[in-house]
Amino acid sequence: MAIDRKHIGFSLPPFTVFIDREQLRRFVEAIGGSTDLAFAPPTFMKVIEGANGSSRAIVSALDIDLRRVMHAEQEFKYDAQIRCGDHVTVERRVIDIYDRKDGAFEFVVIESTMHNRDGVRIGRSTQRILVRNHVPGSA
Amino acid sequence: MSADLESASIGAIIAQREFGPIGREDLQRYAHASGDLNPLHVDKDFARQAGFSDVIVHGMFGMAFLGRLIEDDIVKLQLLAFRATFRKVIEIEQTIVCRARLASRVNNTAVLSLEMLGPDDAVLIDGSAIVEFLTDGSQ
């Protein structure tokens, strides 16, 4: 089932994430990283943007079956280091939806922008997800 | 190792390391630490419904290993941008190799090309990073 192109431009209400030392420690342990918690590891930005169940909210709003979703591409741009105790405000928006192979593959591009409490941009994230429209065993 | 970035020839391997194997418990831990609770990574039945024979590794978990390679093994650098394309599913219980090559360099900025390889050298992830490095003479 095709994703409605009207969702291009869909955005979530901005939300603010507190960078909690304990959560950061658990993430660093999970990826087997160094115990230096001065700065967040580079992929922690994905955790920040995904807070508040925001990724699930976007998938639901676009009426996408989670079983058909794959993460195809991820890009981060860093403007400033993310530290424990920061408050990061996240804005997420669907910037493109397109298909390939006669609609068998659809791609959704989601961009997130993150600012700190002083309004300084700390980074941007662009995620491309693949929605597979013909899965063996599905209806 | 930053001297390597400064003097290495274009195309040279700057860092390489083995990671894994990643087991089910690692996926559980990563899922909870990252907040990415997509059952594709922790629920075998769901993974089968989605067309896979078993749970698969989060693409972001793999990208985190590339992040560790950059940040732990190449010192004295500032990461400006980091991109990953997820080419193939990362299966559980396999050892993976992460590799960074110097792709280009202008003044104190370098582009690294990144690869994550599975068994038989299959490319699971490819990507790139833009880094700024400190030369020995700089403060």
CATH architecture of the domain at 2-21 and 58-133 in chain B: Roll
Main sheet makeup of chain A: 5 strands, antiparallel
Which structural class best describes the helix and strand composition of chain B? alpha+beta
Largest interface, with counts of residues having CB < 8 Å to the other chain, equals: A-B, 35 and 37 residues
**Per DSSP, what share of the residues of chain A sits in E-state strands of 2 or more residues?**
35-45%
Q: Compute the gyration radius of chain A: what is it?
A: 16 Å
Spans of chain A of 5+ residues with little confidence (pLDDT < 50)?
none
Principal-axis shape of chain A: elongated
Number of helices of chain A: 3
Low-confidence stretches of chain B: none
CATH superfamily of the domain at 2-21 and 58-133 in chain B: Hotdog Thioesterase
CATH class of the domain at 2-21 and 58-133 in chain B: Alpha Beta
Gyration radius over CA of chain B? 17 Å
Task: Describe this entry's structure for a reader.
The complex is a heterodimer of chains A (139) and B (139). Chain A has a single domain, classed as Thiol Ester Dehydrase, Chain A. Chain A is built from three helices and five strands, in the order E-H-H-H-E-E-E-E. Chain A starts with 14 loop residues before the first strand and ends in a 7-residue tail after the last strand. Chain B has a domain of 96 residues: Hotdog Thioesterase (Thiol Ester Dehydrase, Chain A), CATH 3.10.129. In chain B, 27% of the residues lie in helices and 35% in strands. Chain B contains four helices and five strands; from the N terminus they run H-E-H-H-H-E-E-E-E. Chain B has a five-stranded antiparallel β-sheet with strand order 1-3-4-5-2. Chain B is elongated. At the A-B interface, helix 1 and strand 2 of A face helix 2, helix 3, helix 4 and strand 2 of B.
